[in-house]
Amino acid sequence: PQARLGHMPEAERPEHVRKVIAVASGKGGVGKSTVAVNLAAAFAAQGLRVGLLDADIYGPSAPTMLGVDGEPTFDDEKRLVPLEAWGLKVMSIGFIVEPGDAAIWRGPMASSALRTMMGSAWGTADQPLDVLVIDLPPGTGDIQLTLVQRLKLDGVVVVSTPQEIALIDARRAATMFAKTGAPILGVIENMAWFEDPTGARVPIFGEGGAAAEAERLGVPLLAQVPIEMALRQACDAGQPLVATRPDSAASRAFLQAAERL
Ligand code: ADP
């Protein structure tokens, strides 16, 4: 990959967007999209103007998790106009293609779709977006590399469960981003524990690993998000938990992560 990166075209960044943060994971199912959605909602709760770009070609989640769907329109400058939900500007690969179609794309096609979505009308000169959160496809394959090497990211947040396999994959993701020059801002440990009815924390997927991994990478462990039924329900109901139940333990973890970024 190093050789290819040497011929990297100029990285791109969207207009009128102050900060671009990508949320990545080494593998699927660790809660990357859950984190991306709730992190975006947490930034919005701080009073920031926030966009969410759901670039997960293997399974776009924003339409389900935010309860928003529709066909985006184009503005006078032929830019896609993001949809709005929960105070966020939202663009998802799921708005643009039929379910399943994007999953079989090759790198250049996924890349070009992402560039088009990046070029959406996120903000104006008067009202720039403060932060754009990108929900990347999971993994560290060629497609992911092609995607991220063209983007000018301000930083990457890596999501992992405490489980060893997820941590190893997260390490691969960190290595990939190091090659693109995008700084890793920190690790968010998801499914860190489950609080049983007595209040005891049960480390279902193990413990301590994410903190050790963050230390190894020399980045902060931004938050530990517990397993919460309310979080799963909120995702299914199309509601960011941070917006509907900001006092829950998981929401407090997301708000803490946003605070530290
Ligand atoms: P990924 O984007 O990594 O594939 P998702 O964010 O789509 O993972 O999460 C997979 C499923 O797990 C979702 O249905 C979500 O609601 C649920 N989930 C994720 N994190 C938690 C958590 N901490 N507690 C409860 N459910 C969770």
Automatic annotation (TrEMBL):
Superkingdom of the organism of origin: Bacteria
Chain positions recorded as ATP binding sites: 26-33
A GO molecular-function annotation: 4 iron, 4 sulfur cluster binding
UniProt keyword Ligase, yes or no: no
Keyword vocabulary terms for this entry: ATP-binding, Hydrolase, Iron, Iron-sulfur, Metal-binding, Nucleotide-binding
GO biological process: iron-sulfur cluster assembly
Function: Binds and transfers iron-sulfur (Fe-S) clusters to target apoproteins. Can hydrolyze ATP.
Assembly behavior: Homodimer.
Family: Belongs to the Mrp/NBP35 ATP-binding proteins family.
Protein name per UniProt: Iron-sulfur cluster carrier protein
Lineage, opening ranks: Bacteria, Pseudomonadati, Pseudomonadota, Alphaproteobacteria, Caulobacterales
